[in-house]
Each structure stands twice: as C-alpha cells, then as structure tokens.
Amino acid sequence: MAELKLDLLVIPTYSKYTLGVADASTYPTDPPSVSSATIEVTVPGFGTILKPFSVQDFNVFTMSNLGLVPVGSQQPLPDGIYRLKYSVAPAYENYVEKSIMRIEQLQEKFDEAFMKLDMMECDRAIKTQAKVNLTSISFFIQGAIAAGNNCAETEATKLYNQANMMLDNFVKNNCGCTGNNYLVNFY
C-alpha cells in the first residue's frame, strides 16, 4: 500500500489572469479517501486565502475565484512571491508547502517590447545593442524567478524591480539602443 505523500506542481498557464496548480500527490488508496482538501494561497499584497482543492486534478485560480475581486470581473493576478500550502483531512498535519515567484505581467511587458523591436530596421550596432539590452533584462527576470523560488525574497524583489526598470527604460528610449555599448564593448 502506498503512503500519503502530498505534492503540488505549479503549471504555467501563460496568462497573467490565472495560476494553475496540479495535485501531484500519491495517496494510499485509489480513489483517494480524503474527506477535505484545502489550499492556502498567499497572494502578494492581498494576504492568505483558504480554498477547497480538487484532489488528483488541475486547479485554476483567478482574482475572482480567490474572492479578491467581484465575480465576473477580470483582473490580473499580481506578480510576486506566492506561497501555497496544500493540506488534507482527516489529519491536517499532512501538508506540503511551495513558494514560487510569479512574473507573468513583467514577462508580458518583456514580450511586447521584444515584438515591437524591428530588428531589421536597425543598423548592425544598434541591433546588437538591443539584443544585449534584452538579454540583460532577461537575466534579471530569470534571477528574480530563481531567487523567489528559493525563498530569497529580498533578492527576488530587487532583481524583479531592476528588470522592470530596465524594461521601462528600454521601451521609453525607443528600443533603448544607441549602439554605443556595442561599439565600446564588442567592436
């Protein structure tokens, strides 16, 4: 007989409006004899919400079904560190916790900046500079994710804010490229 081992998977939904969480647990019986399964979702800036959790299923959370905005309204989930705690009855000492860095809004902003950049119109130095800038921003985004997923909240926030600032400057400066960085550092 298998023993109870709770586990969660956060599945990318590629949407700033949804958070996908799948039950990846093993249960002693099939179907599981769980009378009550709940998940606590700590949403940045909103606190912790306790919700029922569908066992052996894919659960999708939105601002609306978390009770943070009126039903029917669509508002993006905030970026930041989310904490998830899944527990089952009869013994609520059976639980698993996960911490993840969610960056869907920043990623959408990055994708839009990347898609607006017409690489074919820039001369070689400017095109290369734009790639350098986007690569740097991407490294900061990945660093924020890595730090957030490994409980380094302060570092995750600093890296996220730096990536966001760099991205704003990149967009504001019409792709942020002058070619000077490439000419000085790579030519």
Topology:
Blueprint: E1 8-11, E2 19-23, E3 37-43, E4 47-52, E5 58-61, E6 80-88, E7 95-102, H1 104-116, H2 124-149, H3 153-172, H4 180-185
Offer a few descriptive terms.
187 residues, alpha+beta, three-stranded antiparallel β-sheet, 4 helices, 35% helix, elongated, disordered C terminus
Note down, in words, how this protein is organized.
This protein is an alpha+beta fold and 187 residues long. The protein folds into 2 domains: 8-102, Immunoglobulin-like, CATH 2.60.40; 104-185, no CATH class. Helix content is 35%, strand content 23%. The strands form 2 sheets. A 4-stranded antiparallel beta sheet has the order 4-3-6-7. A hairpin with a 6-residue loop joins β6 and β7. α1 packs antiparallel against α2 (124-149), α1 (104-116) runs parallel beside α3 and α2 (124-149) runs antiparallel to α3 (153-172). It is elongated and about 65 Å long. Mean pLDDT is 86; it is low at 176-187.
